[in-house]
């Protein structure tokens, strides 16, 4: 077991505390939160040990989960890494790309592992479908949520869209060529709704929409590739693969056949990969444990977290050009 501590005991921090305590791979040491009154309440209500300083928690732990506001990620991460402790840091990795690069390089220098909390990578629907995604050439994603003041200290791109940016970068094996985007601030001081178009050097195009002022929730992505259409519903945890193949000479009566302009007949068939129920946050934490023990690159590395932030910042910079 690894001794684990949590920096930040807000909504998400409490979830991490609960899951680390449940995990058979970690020994929960305790937590630190700057809000002393809230810390005392959490300690008395749940029994988690509250540390008086960030440094004392880091010293007592082998791995630290950083679930503080994004504005504090950089300083917290530096303290963890300089103490040569493994780092799990929630998305976005930091406020700026330069900070993310410094954290990425510091982890390498200190010879410790780091993982970014991109929970949708561990969504069971995405886990079930990702091996079916091969060289997609068009991707469309919609991530819509109802308004919640929590998280509005950053743009909707860093709050919501970054989930889809990360998932898309994980399956498109090509550098980003260009980005164009537009965003609108409706309630918050930062954009609440945004659309972005990412073009990759291999010709793939991704069209992403994110909103935190919608009347209903939606978290869907669609991947189009040669002879296949793949859909993922992150919210409902469902996925589907629609494939095309050459039609049989004598197809059965229930076969779905399409004939193109050249007279070529194609048969449509459906696959519904088995989606295994899971707790995605627990899975990402335990995946990080496995990476540490095996001394291998984590599922969502600090490098990947940096690249997702880099694209997110390119999108945000495009807002200023509109």
Automatic annotation (TrEMBL):
Identify a single GO molecular function assigned to this protein. Answer: nucleotide binding
Q: Which residues form the Gfo/Idh/MocA-like oxidoreductase C-terminal domain?
A: 156-318
- Superkingdom in the source lineage: Bacteria
* Record domain Gfo/Idh/MocA-like oxidoreductase N-terminal: where: 3-117
What InterPro entries does the entry give? Gfo/Idh/MocA-like_OxRdtase_C (IPR004104), Gfo/Idh/MocA-like_OxRdtase_N (IPR000683), Gfo/Idh/MocA_Oxidoreductases (IPR051450), NAD(P)-bd_dom_sf (IPR036291)
SUPFAM superfamilies associated with the record: Glyceraldehyde-3-phosphate dehydrogenase-like, C-terminal domain (SSF55347), NAD(P)-binding Rossmann-fold domains (SSF51735)
Q: Per its UniProt record, what PANTHER family does this chain match?
A: BILIVERDIN REDUCTASE A
By what name is this protein known?
Gfo/Idh/MocA family oxidoreductase
Organism encoding this protein:
Aequorivita xiaoshiensis
Could you read off the lineage of the organism from its UniProt record?
Answer: Bacteria, Pseudomonadati, Bacteroidota, Flavobacteriia, Flavobacteriales
